[in-house]
């Protein structure tokens, strides 16, 4: 099954973490990213040079759209998990994108995604 990369995995790739690189290289299908992760990365960039590095990295992956159906599902996830698990809107969008498109999620922050049963850290 194809995999959606969570922002934390992308950050590790930007930091040249060999565990992240090995995990991505081991994936059968080309990994995917969504606009919510791009937004988080750009928000954390400290310079235009870092933004260019982010753009270069993200160009290597397939981009999955966040459409009306994903927004609807993200809203439902927030309604059910915000108070009980502290789900934030960005993680809700990432989860909804993976679920709507039938993708596995590669993350290190398993506790951020309580609605995904059996989720394990990517590395």
| C-alpha termini separation | 17 Å
What is the gyration radius calculated from CA atoms? Answer: 14 Å
Give me the number of helical elements. 6
Instruction: Give the total of beta strands.
Output: 4
Helix content: 40-55%
Mean pLDDT: 95
The count of domains is 1
CATH architecture: 3-Layer(aba) Sandwich
CATH superfamily: 5'-nuclease
Pattern of helices and strands: EHHEHHEHHE
Shape, per Cα inertia axes: globular
The third-level CATH topology is Rossmann fold
Low-confidence stretches: none
Residues in β-strands, percent: 5-15%
Q: Quickly name the level 1 CATH class.
A: Alpha Beta
Which strands sit side by side, in order, in the main sheet? Answer: 1-4
Biggest sheet layout: 2 strands, parallel
Q: From the helix content, strand content and strand pairing, which structural class follows?
A: mainly alpha
What would you note in describing this structure?
The chain starts with a strand and ends in a 17-residue tail after the last strand. The chain is globular and about 40 Å long. It is 54% helix and 10% strand. It has 123 residues and is mainly alpha-helical. The strands form two sheets. A two-stranded parallel sheet has the order 1-4. It has a two-stranded parallel sheet with strand order 2-3. The protein has helices spanning 7-14, 18-25, 35-44, 48-58, 68-85, 89-100, and strands spanning 3-5, 32-34, 62-64, 104-106. The protein has a single domain, classed as Rossmann fold, CATH 3.40.50.1010. Helix 1 (7-14) packs across helix 2 (18-25) and helix 5 crosses helix 6.
């Amino acid at each position: 099954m194809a995999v959606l990369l969570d922002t934390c995995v992308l950050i590790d790739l930007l930091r040249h973490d060999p565990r992240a690189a090995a995990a991505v290289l081991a994936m059968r299908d080309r990994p995917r990213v969504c606009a919510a992760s791009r937004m988080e990365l750009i928000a954390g960039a400290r310079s235009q040079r870092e933004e260019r590095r982010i753009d270069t990295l993200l160009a290597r992956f397939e981009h999955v759209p966040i459409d009306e159906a994903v927004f609807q599902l993200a809203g439902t996830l927030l309604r059910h998990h915000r108070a009980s698990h502290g789900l934030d809107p960005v993680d809700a969008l990432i989860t909804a994108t993976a679920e709507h498109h039938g993708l596995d999620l590669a993350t290190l922050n398993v506790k951020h995604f309580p609605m995904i049963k059996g989720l394990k850290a990517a590395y």
